[in-house]
Every structure is written in C-alpha cells, then in structure tokens.
C-alpha cells in the first residue's frame, strides 16, 4: 500500500458502473493516449463504453477518460477536476459515498482511492498482476472487492486499503462483481463461463453456477426476488438463478437483440 461517475443506468440502484472497456477497446499502458483537446467525442447514437458512476449523493459524475478520470457536476455537466495517477486505461470506477471517495481500477493493475473533496489520490492498492476489470464496494462489510484479468478477486479494507484476502477459483478473467446483502455473499462472473458465489466475510466459495456457453460479462442480484441474473458475451443470453441454491430458473436468448452490455433491475 502506497499512501500518497451523464447518468449511468446502474448508478440508480447504487451499483458501481463497470465499463465494457474491461473486455474490449483497451489501450496498452505504453501507448500514447489522446490529449484532452483531441479526445473522441461520444455521440448519443453510439454506445458509450467509458466507465462511469455517480458520487457524492448523485451530485457528481465520474467518467474514465483514458488514464484519467473526469469529475463533472452531474446537473450541469461542468468539469470540476481531472484526476490523474493511473498509468494505464481506467476500466472501472466505484463510489463510497459515506466518506466521499471514489475507487478506480486500471489496466496498470492497481486500484486507486480518490478524495472527491480535495480531488486528490489517497492510496494505491497493489497486488493484482494483470489489469483490474471490476470493483464492488460493500460498505456494511467495510471492504472493497476487485476483480482482475489474473482470475482472482481481492478484498481490501475500505478505510485503510489494506489487503485482507484473495479469492481464488476462477481460471480465466473475472469480468464482473455483485453483492447480496441478504445472503452476505459476493457473486462473480468470469471468462471461464461461470458465476461463483462467495461468503463476504470469509471469502469461502459457496456455489458455482454453470450453464453459460460463453464468457459471463455481467451479473446482478435482486434480493427482493431471491434471484441472480447473469449475461454472457456475444450470444445475447441472460440466465436467472436461485440466489440460495444456484438452481437455474430461467434462460433467455435472442440472436436478433444487441449484445448484452449490462443488466439492471428497475
């Protein structure tokens, strides 16, 4: 440990927004990136795959722009600050609103913690040996979880950034994370085509959900329905599982629909 997110569809549910850049379109850390004046403009008709999330009670919008994170006034779109520190493309961002901080993951393999009042880097969390692909803040547990292309999930202390444990079981990239407060469980999706259920406190693996034909790219928990929903890459398939037993409840696929990029419950 070294001391030193326009509205997102998933932010309304309080979930961190994880960019599809974790799976495609990443720049290599060694390649030059667009200067601010020449960054590509995102048209409304095109999908915006930049990582983004709301923070500070929805007042701020944090958007990954290459190696930087742009902090905007969510109401006006005014750029308040640009956070710099990562040496590779930012792939995911997640807020921790109780303390007014933001976490970000990157191709450089680090998770960074930012103070959104001082607009400064607070800590750098190191341990992954490949890019960080997804983040999940669990305030009740006092922890943040990071998934990586190294096939592991790491649990960190939310306040200090101390590494608490490593969750191992997937054998390909971890692509997405979600939490069930009711089950005190973490769910992860992976390039190995599985969804796995982990105990939040101990990190023990509880269940493996297997039925996907392609890498799992998104996972969402609905505690009110006792369901976990997962989406796979390319085949536009969405599956719903029993949150307790892992039993497959429903499977939907439509080749005519656009590729699934995220799922959320209204």
Model description:
This protein is mainly β. Strands 1-10-9-8-7-2 form a six-stranded antiparallel β-sheet, with no helix packed on it. A four-stranded antiparallel β-sheet has the order 3-4-5-6, with no helix packed on it. Strands 11-12-13-14 form a four-stranded antiparallel β-sheet, with no helix packed on it. A hairpin with a 4-residue loop joins strand 9 and strand 10. The N and C termini lie far apart (38 Å).
SSE topology sketch:
Blueprint: E1 2-3, E2 17-18, E3 52-55, E4 60-65, E5 68-73, E6 79-83, E7 90-96, E8 101-106, E9 111-115, E10 120-125, E11 132-138, E12 143-148, E13 152-157, E14 163-168, E15 174-180, E16 185-190, E17 194-199, E18 205-210, E19 216-222, E20 227-232, E21 237-242, E22 248-253
Antiparallel strand pairs: 1-10, 2-7, 3-4, 4-5, 5-6, 7-8, 8-9, 9-10, 11-12, 12-13, 13-14, 15-16, 16-17, 17-18, 19-20, 20-21, 21-22
């Amino acid at each position: 440990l070294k001391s030193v997110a326009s509205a997102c569809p998933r932010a309304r549910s309080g979930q961190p927004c994880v960019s599809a850049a974790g799976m495609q379109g990443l720049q290599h850390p060694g390649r030059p990136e667009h200067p601010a004046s020449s960054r590509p403009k995102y048209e409304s008709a095109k999908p915006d795959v930049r990582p983004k999330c709301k923070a500070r009670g929805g007042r701020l919008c944090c958007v990954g722009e290459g190696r930087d994170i742009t902090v905007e006034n969510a109401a006006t779109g005014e750029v308040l600050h640009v956070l710099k520190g990562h040496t590779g493309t930012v792939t995911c961002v997640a807020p921790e609103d109780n303390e007014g901080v933001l976490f970000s993951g990157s191709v450089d393999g680090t998770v960074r913690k930012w103070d959104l009042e001082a607009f400064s880097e607070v800590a750098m969390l190191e341990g992954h040996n490949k890019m960080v692909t997804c983040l999940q803040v669990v305030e009740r547990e006092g922890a943040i979880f990071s998934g990586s292309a190294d096939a592991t999930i790491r649990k960190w202390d939310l306040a200090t950034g101390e590494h608490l444990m490593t969750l191992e079981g997937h054998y390909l990239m971890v692509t997405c994370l979600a939490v069930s407060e009711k089950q005190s469980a973490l769910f992860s999706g992976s390039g190995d085509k599985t969804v796995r259920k982990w105990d939040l406190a101990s990190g023990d693996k509880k269940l493996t959900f297997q039925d996907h034909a392609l890498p799992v790219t998104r996972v969402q928990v609905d505690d009110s329905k006792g369901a976990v929903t997962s989406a796979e890459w390319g085949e536009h398939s969405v599956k719903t599982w029993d949150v307790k037993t892992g039993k497959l409840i429903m499977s939907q696929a439509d080749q005519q629909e656009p590729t699934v990029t995220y799922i959320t419950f209204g």
